């Protein structure tokens, strides 16, 4: 009896084994599917990572040199250039197959954007490049306009008066020096004001000197955003509120008037330099005397 039961159990195990093998034969795992994705979509994360698109992922025999188009294709197109020094892959579609290469600094005609990707129009047709590797190249006219706008903005914030109140005790030009008693070019304008009067920056810029200068005493120099340099001399010891490299804004207080250096009394000696040479502050638009 036990022998009959054992034979039936072995027969059942054999039948189950055969069924399992038949199921495998009927439903094979093909190389065309992977988790419900087709093989083109199931490429490695490294190949689809735009961080790696500056690396050549196609063989030299398959890589096609992309020849950028020379003329705009629509009103919204613009000229850019490749920023990656090792070049960048061009793809058939966003995240699609790599079809060619663009080299560093190649000019490209961008016709539109598609998410993080730019559609590039070339003599070879259309391709897509990740926006990470393309920057816009301004035309000469656009660069000129930007420079003019920056200069106007910097100039419009320059002006006013370096001190409040007081009077002009000595203008710009040749004069008999009050201490040396010789005829000499007075490189700036003197404002006679009470000691301790705040001296004010004439516009936004960066401090390039803050300390002692022979003849001028305690002095502050500012290189302004418009390219001019202003000098404020004969300041009070211990009154300087700025240091070299510090950014200042228009009419910011930087120190106080005194008579340090070669000075006969409390006053601010104020100079303006252009291209390394002193000019008459009165000739500058926006300066109030």
From TrEMBL:
Gene3D superfamilies: Glucose Permease (Domain IIA), SH3 Domains. Residues 42-62 are annotated as: Disordered. Residues 185-281 form the M23ase beta-sheet core domain. Pfam families: Peptidase_M23. Keywords: Signal. InterPro entries: Cell_wall_metabolism_enzyme (IPR050570), Dup_hybrid_motif (IPR011055), M23ase_b-sheet_dom (IPR016047). This is M23ase beta-sheet core domain-containing protein. It comes from Candidatus Wallbacteria bacterium HGW-Wallbacteria-1. One of its GO terms (molecular function) is metalloendopeptidase activity. It comes from the Bacteria. Residues 1-31 form the signal peptide.
């Amino acid at each position: 009896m036990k022998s009959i039961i054992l034979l039936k159990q072995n027969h059942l195990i054999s039948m189950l084994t055969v069924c399992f093998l038949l199921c495998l034969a009927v439903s094979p795992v093909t190389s065309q599917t992977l988790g419900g994705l087709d093989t083109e979509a199931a490429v490695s994360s490294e190949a689809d990572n735009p961080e790696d698109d500056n690396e050549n992922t196609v063989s030299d025999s398959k890589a096609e040199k992309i020849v950028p188009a020379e003329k705009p294709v629509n009103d919204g197109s613009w000229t850019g250039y490749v920023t990656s020094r090792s070049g960048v892959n061009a793809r058939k579609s966003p995240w699609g197959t790599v079809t060619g290469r663009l080299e560093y600094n190649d000019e490209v005609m961008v016709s539109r954007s598609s998410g993080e990707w730019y559609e590039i129009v070339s003599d070879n047709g259309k391709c897509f490049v990740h926006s990470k590797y393309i920057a816009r190249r301004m035309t000469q006219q656009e660069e000129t306009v930007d420079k003019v706008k920056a200069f106007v903005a910097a100039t419009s914030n320059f002006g006013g008066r370096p001190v409040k109140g007081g009077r002009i005790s000595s203008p710009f030009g040749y004069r008999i020096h009050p201490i040396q008693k010789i005829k000499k070019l007075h490189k700036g304008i003197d404002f006679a004001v009470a000691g301790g009067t705040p001296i004010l920056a004439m516009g936004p810029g960066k401090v390039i000197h803050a300390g002692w200068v022979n003849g001028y005493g305690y002095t502050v120099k500012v290189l302004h955003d418009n390219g001019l340099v202003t000098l404020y001399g004969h300041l009070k010891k211990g009154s300087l509120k700025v240091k070299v490299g510090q950014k200042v804004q228009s009419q910011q207080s930087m120190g106080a008037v005194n008579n340090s250096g070669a000075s006969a009394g409390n006053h601010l000696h104020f100079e303006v330099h252009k291209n390394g040479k002193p000019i008459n502050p009165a000739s500058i638009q926006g300066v109030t005397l």
